[in-house]
Design brief:
52% of the residues lie in helices and 2% in strands. It is an all-alpha fold. The protein has one domain: Orthogonal Bundle (Endonuclease III, domain 1), CATH 1.10.340. It has a two-stranded parallel ribbon. Helix 2 runs antiparallel to helix 7, helix 2 crosses helix 10 and helix 9 crosses helix 10. The longest helix is centred in the middle third of the chain and has 19 residues. The chain is globular. One of its GO terms (biological process) is base-excision repair. InterPro entries: Adenine_glyco, DNA-3mA_glycosylase, DNA_glycosylase. It holds the Pfam family Adenine_glyco. This is DNA-3-methyladenine glycosylase I.
Length: 187
């Protein structure tokens, strides 16, 4: 099997993520919130760092149950900032809780983040097959559009580069390299 460059010669965690998650379309709202949070946490760090702490994040953030995270209070903030098992960036933690509260409002209004994000691509994944990693953009007009819309809707820490990675993680964008033989969509 030939993989994207970032997953070649990687550890088992990265290889598994590449082979079974990254670029795989999801319609699961809990998973969407989890990946939103993990992508936010990755800003300025490596994805390897985030993946190695994923189980700790799940424990610290109530398995990304958006209703529970939305109810986190000042004591939870202190607990999270002091949790050595996660990335202890106070702003990222605060914005995760804020975003959970925004999502709860959406859910009460009958909206989901997952359906919203997929609506930008007509509910069909955008399949790109870039020749090299250097060709894969850090952001695109789509991620810029989604980022702007999310910020206008009150979400935080959703810049176009974070959104680009998030859309890839959700399988909305399938940016496996042309040489990659991992096939999520049966093409």
């Amino acid at each position: 099997m030939t993989r994207c460059d970032w997953a070649e010669n990687a550890d088992d965690l990265m290889t598994h993520y590449h082979d079974y998650e990254w670029g795989v379309p999801t319609k699961d709202e809990r998973e969407t919130f989890e990946l939103m949070t993990l992508e936010m946490m990755q800003a300025g760090l490596s994805w390897q760092t985030v993946l190695s702490k994923r189980e700790n994040f799940r424990a610290a953030f109530a398995n990304f149950d958006v209703d529970r995270v939305a109810q986190f209070n000042d004591d939870d903030m202190v607990r999270l900032v002091n949790d050595a098992g996660i990335i202890r960036n106070k702003l990222k933690i605060k914005d995760t809780i804020h975003n959970a509260r925004q999502l709860v409002e959406w859910h009460h209004a009958g909206r989901t983040m997952n359906a919203y994000l997929w609506s930008f691509v007509g509910d069909q994944p955008v399949i790109n097959r870039y020749p090299t990693m250097a060709d894969v953009p850090a952001q695109t007009p789509l991620s810029q559009q989604v980022s702007k819309a999310l910020k206008q809707a009150g979400f935080k820490f959703v810049g176009p580069t974070i959104v680009q990675s998030w859309l890839e993680a959700l399988g909305i964008l399938d940016d496996h390299l042309a040489k990659c033989t991992v096939n999520h969509l049966g093409e």
